[in-house]
Amino acid sequence: MLKFIQTYLDHRGPFPARIRDRHKQFWQDPNAETVRNTLMDAEDGIEKWKDVVNWQRKLSNKYNSREFAGKHGCKVAALIWKGRDIDNIDFKNLPENYVIRPTIGHSANLVFLMKKNYNLFDKKTYTTTQIKDTLKAAVALNEKLEFLVEEFLKNEQGQNEILKDYKVYSFNGEIACIWVINRLSPKSGNGSFYDENWQPLKMVNTIYPNGEPEQPPKCLQDIVKQAKILSKAYEIFVRIDFYATNKGCVFGEFTPTPGMGGHTTRYGQKLLISHWDKYCTGQI
Known about the structure:
single chain, alpha+beta, D-amino Acid Aminotransferase, Chain A, domain 1, 2 domains, six-stranded antiparallel beta sheet, 24% strand, globular, disordered N terminus
């Protein structure tokens, strides 16, 4: 019974309520997809980025988010190819290891983390034809969808593997917590929580089981610095994902409605709502 009550609260508390409200305002707007898929460039003036209400929706397009992060001085994975015409991907001349991901989507759907012919995410081997067929089927269903082919980032030891996620809950330049996830696949792994000085925190979210304490990444100071810069530029609450690589801190993506706020513990609700009320007062 107590577990049921806690699960109910994890999904129905004030933080999930605010996230659901934001999701409604962001994506029930009839112009939402036009806003999200208006392609931007790092050289565009900030007034162009912010020329619509809830302009942050543009950053839910993963190409735009790369450009925005680069505009603010953060490293991003090298871009090899972008587009919808999948036949134009020159697979023969791709590096041995590479990543393919969609510009629209969540939960690592349609992501290929290719180490030679093996996708580390779903643990399956793919031929070039199989990958192309999957991508073509996806773009056929969504006229606005594009795919990015990017470099396969290496971990701090220089190895190609599924990288740890450093998910920074950020509020207009202030950090509530850093969630480190050791992934085994897109939906399995373990995690732990820290403040920006790497002091352990109680669990904020329970979607991944609690893991062993982590050593801080070598680029922790840069992750914190870049999270504050990008969060201040984003203006409202956002979770910002980074990777710790042999090149240092690399930006991953912005997540404005993480998990629809679900699985947030009582402690997490108190922590996140207190930051929201203090640093993003009255904001969506």
